[in-house]
């Protein structure tokens, strides 16, 4: 058995995700959102003026927008007080742009990522790794072969300095402008860290690149920004993982993701989200797809107190394709409101959305999705399938699939199922020798199987493992 | 040798007062084939489910005992004298399975996303493990408790060598048993009963029994929904259970037809929640000819 599997064998959620480290910050902003805080962040990063201006503009937009409150069945955000969140903590590391050798990191940070299994995964299955601790990327490395081919994988702050033209053009302009929603505006004001990925024409990055985001300090907010530009005919798979220890007060994660999929390019974006259950997870993720480009979103949402996340693809070019695969798991006190958005703005575009959600112990999942097919997007097709499995009568699951079809020559399919885990099914498995817990685990594994079988194996294993850990609590 | 003993068994539906079993007495032992017949609603399926531990039924009186001899589970497991009789009503369904009880379902569950191979290997290993726990010496308990603190790998993605029976070894067992039952090998990769025809499901129940090697198999209408070819395959499978593994079979059926292939040693007729009459194979033939009314008349007398 490899040490990687040993790591996966580790059972205790506490040991794997919820360990806490002493906070050791070099710079720490005050709470709340003032111009002063924004200026301080920008100055600490030694940013060019144009970026500071964008931040301040976003801050103004944030203050002018109301909190979303009119969505049917939306998670309760009343306990979230953004003014109490610490938006910026720069950990005390020597090298600002992040090191490329794990051993150069302070022990407590190195130990954190060791426990999360990141260096091990890097050795075995990844082209590159970025690791963010609090507000800053502390480790960044990519195999040389990709660098030689012109691939860029660096932290977002470095990209602002080193690749200003690309960033100026793509950063929160056409894809996710701060005006998109209140949390996008918040993100635009206080963003810090994240990844910048640039893949030149016709380059295929064979193994995935991974970024891991870790929040350690109580009451902080993490606002990393990820910008991926895949040029014509290129291909890349980006994986992000996230976790934090649990605290009594609330943390906020509000990431921004922008993906530009060039002609004939193919981008897969996978997320395993395991934030602690005091975290509000409110993200904006969007991709723009050129002609014959392909965008795939894979999301596993296991953690957080409340999640609102609807990765969006704009199918702008003729013949472009979108795939969404979503797994959500909500336990006690969790409200996972997630789904997908697709805009078919060109002919012959297609989208496939598969969503599986599981709720137990009073948790709630909601699939909220929008498929828009514009007038003139002839011969486009969409297929939406959402299935929900509930463990008990206390748990809830809703499905809100919206469709806006303006074009008549289209193919639209939609299926939804909602069901409670069946007593007869459990008894059947028990009568063959499985105990009650294992019977339920087997049924859940089977429920998500159509999705996990499409995933890369390491990712599928990790996802299954997380779901099992979630189930341990209630079943054990 | 194993012997299943039902003593004065009374049971009702757990949520409600409807009494279904009114004092069933029955014994089935290894190497024997029993047929349990009777009109609809007489309590046959309930008897089967109560033996296996279905949570929808509550036993209000009587016992379900399983008697084992010391060599029932081979040389590896030593059965002490005080562990030879088990009151199944105190045990969970999976513990009953570990002791060698198998229920062939009239309507097997369909479990999407779980392959036959994965399911059967998991079940077999779970059964072996549970059996070890049931028979382990008490002084070992403490060290085992410590072991249990570790996370047990799940059926869905554990490493290939996990469990008593590894993947390669299991493939071989499965292939052998499937050939015996003339089942297409594609079954191994299909999801458990999902989209199976009625006949395929029944065949699959017999396959599961063949792999789990029960001491006592209760087969609830295994012959319903079978065409003649498959009836023969299924019958061969049931006979093999008895002939090769010494399984005691309690077969619930409405029809004489399967009894032509699986010849019973004993035939019982159930009426109104009790065994009303028992006899040899000739009893089944008589029922086929004359129906159940004459039994009713014989038992209750004519009005």
TrEMBL record, chain A:
InterPro entries tied to this protein: Fe-S_cluster_assembly_SufBD, SUF_FeS_clus_asmbl_SufB, SUF_FeS_clus_asmbl_SufBD_core, SUF_FeS_clus_asmbl_SufBD_sf, SufBD_N
Q: Where is the composition biased (Basic and acidic residues)?
A: 1-25
Give the span(s) annotated as Disordered.
1-32
Record's superkingdom? Archaea
Q: Which residues form a coiled coil?
A: none
The UniProt entry, under Pfam families, shows: SUFBD_core (PF01458), SufBD_N (PF19295)
Q: Which residues form the SUF system FeS cluster assembly SufBD N-terminal domain?
A: 138-210
Residue limits of the SUF system FeS cluster assembly SufBD core domain? 213-447
Query: Among the record's GO biological process terms, what is one?
Result: iron-sulfur cluster assembly
For this protein, the record's NCBIfam families field holds: sufB (TIGR01980)
Q: Which family does it belong to?
A: Belongs to the iron-sulfur cluster assembly SufBD family.
Which PANTHER family does the record associate with it? FES CLUSTER ASSEMBLY PROTEIN SUF (PTHR30508), UPF0051 PROTEIN ABCI8, CHLOROPLASTIC-RELATED (PTHR30508:SF1)
The molecule here is called FeS assembly protein SufB
Q: Which organism is it from?
A: Natrinema pallidum DSM 3751
Top-level taxonomy = Archaea, Methanobacteriati, Methanobacteriota, Stenosarchaea group, Halobacteria
UniProtKB/TrEMBL annotation, chain B:
Q: Which UniProt key words apply to this protein?
A: ATP-binding, Nucleotide-binding
Q: Pfam families, alphabetically?
A: ABC_tran
Endoplasmic reticulum as a keyword? Answer: no
Q: Does the keyword ATP-binding apply?
A: yes
Superkingdom of this entry's organism? Archaea
Database matches in InterPro entries: AAA+_ATPase, ABC_transporter-like_ATP-bd, FeS-cluster_ATPase_SufC, P-loop_NTPase
ABC transporter domain sequence ranges: 4-297
- Residue ranges annotated as compositionally biased, kind Acidic residues, are 133-151
Which residues does the annotated region (Disordered) include?
133-162
Q: What CDD domains does the annotation carry?
A: ABC_FeS_Assembly (cd03217)
Q: Name one GO molecular function term.
A: ATP hydrolysis activity
Task: List the PANTHER family hit by this protein, alphabetically.
Answer: ABC TRANSPORTER I FAMILY MEMBER 6, CHLOROPLASTIC (PTHR43204:SF1)
Q: What is this protein called?
A: FeS assembly ATPase SufC
Whose protein is this, by species? Natrinema pallidum DSM 3751
